[in-house]
Amino acid sequence: MRRAGLGEGGSGNYVASGYSVYEEENEHLQEGLRAKVNALKSLSIDIGTEVKYQNTMLDDMDTDFDSTGGLLGATIGRVKKLSRGSQTKLLCYMLLFCFFVFFVLYWFIRLR
């Protein structure tokens, strides 16, 4: 035990106390590191939960956009069918009506 400086003796006590100080410092740093690891673990779990929530929201939006795209496609098909006929005057009235509605909505939102 004398070689390691941990036995009885004058210089051995100094080495043992130095070792104890290092051991306490290591334990203190280990506790700090453990707290940081726990904080990172909690943060990564929260990020994972948020990512899952965002993915479900994106899937819902994708479904909504697909259904809206189908509705718009059908409407455009009807407008094309209407334009092929000799009812161009009706088509012009319909376009003017759409512009009027958009203008009124824009004006209403702008005043609000």
Outline the secondary-structure elements:
Blueprint: H1 10-84, H2 88-111
Descriptive report:
Helix content is 88%, strand content 0%. With 112 residues, the protein is an all-alpha fold. The chain has a domain at 14-85.
Task: Quickly describe the structure.
By secondary structure, the protein is mainly alpha-helical. Helix content is 88%, strand content 0%.
User: Spans of 5+ residues with little confidence (pLDDT < 50)?
Assistant: 7-12
Major sheet summary line: none
From the spread of the alpha carbons, the general shape counts as rod-shaped
Question: If you average the pLDDT, what whole number results?
Answer: 82
Order of helices and strands: HH
Subunit structure: Interacts with SNARE complex members GOSR2, SEC22B and STX5. Interacts with LMAN1/ERGIC53. Interacts with STX17.
GO biological process, one term: protein transport
Protein name: BET1 homolog
Main location: membrane
Q: Which characteristics define this entry?
A:
T_SNARE_dom; 112 residues; mainly alpha; transmembrane; 88% helix
